[in-house]
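I am writing to request your help with a piece of structural work I have in hand. A protein sequence and the C-alpha cells that stand for its backbone fold form the material at issue. Please examine both parts with care and let me know of anything in them that strikes you as inconsistent. The record follows directly beneath this note.
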Amino acid sequence: MKFVKLSHGVLRKLQSQGYNLLIAPSDTQDTENITWRAISVNNVNEWLGSGVTAIPFKEPHILPIQEALDNIENDALFGSVFIENIMKTLEDYRNEVGDYGERLYLRNDAIRSGDFSKYETFLRIAYPDTVAEDLQEASDVAGRVKQMSKEGLRDWIIRNRVNLIITDLYFLDEGSIISGEVAIQENLQFIIGDGVEDLIDCPVTPHDVLNLTDHEVYWVDPVVKA
C-alpha cells in the first residue's frame, strides 16, 4: 500500500483495481487534507440514492471516481488516498495482450536476469523470422540498462530534462524497464493520453512514475531519445 496525493492518474489506477467511489469521515474539517478511502459498489447511482448507513461513518464525504475524472481538473483534486500495487504475472500479460504481451514479459525477464533461454525458445516458436534481431536488441538493452534508486531516477529525469517515460510493461509493476524521451511539449497530451491505463508500452509522465511507485530498484535504459 502507498499513501499518495489524489490525481487523475491515481483515480485511474483505483478504477483499474475495481474501485468506483471515494469516501471520507464526515467529521473531516480540513478538506484540503482529507484522507479518502476507496470502495467498490455494484451501482454507484443506486448506492448514492439508498443512503450510506452501512458505512462506518455518519454521512461521509463521497466522491464518485468517474465523476471526478469527468468534471474535476487534475490540479483541483484534493486530499490523499491509499493505493495498492498488484503485480501482474506472465499469465496476465498473455491473457490480456496475447503473444505480444508474453513476448514483452519474457524479454523484460531476460534483460534483467541475463538468462535469454526462455525468451529465445518463445521467439523460435512465435516469431521464428526475427529471432536473431530480437535477441540482439534485447542483448543491447541488457548491456546498458541501469539499476537506480528512486532518488537516482529523479536525478536522471531532471538532469536529462525527460518529460515522457515509456515502460515496456505496466508502469506500476516493479521491474518494468523505463525509457526516457524529451518530447515536444505541445505533443505530450496527445502522446500520453490515457497511458496510465495501458498494460504495455505505457507512455506516462515522470510525475506519475515518481508519485505512484515506490520501488527499491528502478530499471532504466539511460539512452534518452530527443
Residues 53 and 155 are 48 Å apart (CA to CA). The beta strands are 2-5, 21-24, 35-39, 61-64, 80-83, 146-148, 164-167, 177-181, 202-204, 218-225. The radius of gyration is 20 Å. Confidence is low (pLDDT under 50) at residues 52-59.
